[in-house]
Design goal:
The structure is a single chain. Helix content is 46%, strand content 19%. The protein has a single domain (25-156), classed as Rossmann fold (3-Layer(aba) Sandwich). With 186 residues, it is of the alpha/beta class. Strand 2 (43-47), helix 3 (52-61) and strand 3 form a beta-alpha-beta unit. A 7-stranded parallel β-sheet has the order 4-3-2-5-6-1-7, with helices on both faces. The chain starts with a helix and ends with a helix. Helix 5 packs parallel to helix 7 (131-144). The model is unreliable at 182-186 (pLDDT under 50). It has helices at residues 3-8, 22-38, 52-61, 76-79, 97-110, 125-128, 131-144, 160-167, 176-184, and strands at residues 14-20, 43-47, 69-73, 88-90, 116-120, 149-155, 172-175. The protein has 9 helices and 7 strands; from the N terminus they run H-E-H-E-H-E-H-E-H-E-H-H-E-H-E-H.
C-alpha cells in the first residue's frame, strides 16, 4: 500500500515515522513531497542527506512545484556548497540539534495554518550525535509539531534500537522494510 494512502486515514494533523529500506528512500520522499505540494500547504523540508540544491533540482525534474517549500539544509555548509536563497535556512552542521530545532520551531510559530514538516533521513543525525541526543531531539520536534503534518523518514538499516526508541513518539509508524521483506519472501 502507498505511504500517502496510509497517512490519509490519520486526519489533518499527525506525526508519522516512515521506516524504509535505503533503496526506497528517494522514491518515497519524492512521492510524499509531490502529494504535500499538491495540497498547496506550506512545507518545511529538513534535509540531512542532500544539499537543498540537489533536492530542489531533483523535485523540479519530477515536475514538483517547490515554491511552497522552505528548506532547512544541514549539509551544504559542511560541503562548502551554500547558495543564498530566500527559501533556505542553512544550519552550520547536522550535529547542531539546537539550531535545527529552533528552525523547525520558528517555522511552526510563523505558519499558523495547516502545514507539512518533512524530515529526510532522521538516522543521519546518528552520524553526528549520540543516540540519546537524537531521541531527545525527535521527541522535542514531535511535541512542537502537534497541529502539523509531520512526516519523518528513517532508513531501516540504522538499527532496531533507534527505531524502537523513537517510534513511541509518533502517531503512526509505517514500516516499508517489513512490507518489502514480505513481498520478497512470496
Amino acid at each position: 500500500m502507498d505511504v500517502c494512502e496510509k497517512l490519509k486515514g490519520l486526519g489533518e494533523n499527525y506525526s508519522a515515522l516512515i521506516v524504509t529500506p535505503i533503496s526506497l528512500l528517494k522514491d518515497e520522499l519524492l512521492h510524499v513531497v509531490r502529494k504535500a505540494t499538491g495540497t498547496g500547504l506550506p512545507i518545511l523540508l529538513l534535509t540531512l542527506n542532500k544539499p537543498q540544491e540537489a533536492l530542489d533540482e531533483q523535485f523540479r525534474a519530477e515536475g514538483i512545484d517547490t515554491s511552497k517549500i522552505l528548506y532547512v539544509d544541514c549539509i551544504a555548509k559542511s560541503l562548502g556548497t551554500v547558495t543564498r536563497k530566500k527559501n533556505v535556512i542553512h544550519i552550520e552542521h547536522a550535529s547542531d540539534l539546537t539550531s535545527i530545532n529552533i528552525a523547525v520551531s520558528e517555522f511552526i510559530e510563523k505558519i499558523k495554518t495547516e502545514k507539512f514538516i518533512i524530515i529526510d533521513a532522521l538516522a543521519t543525525l546518528l552520524i553526528y550525535n549520540s543516540e540519546d541526543m537524537v531521541v531527545k531531539f525527535v521527541r522535542s520536534v514531535v511535541q512542537s509539531a502537534r497541529g502539523s503534518r509531520l512526516i519523518c523518514f528513517t532508513p531501516s538499516a540504522k538499527g532496531l534500537s533507534f527505531i524502537e526508541k523513537i517510534s513511541v513518539y509518533f502517531d503512526e509508524v509505517v514500516d516499508l522494510s517489513a512490507e518489502e521483506n514480505a513481498s520478497q519472501s512470496r
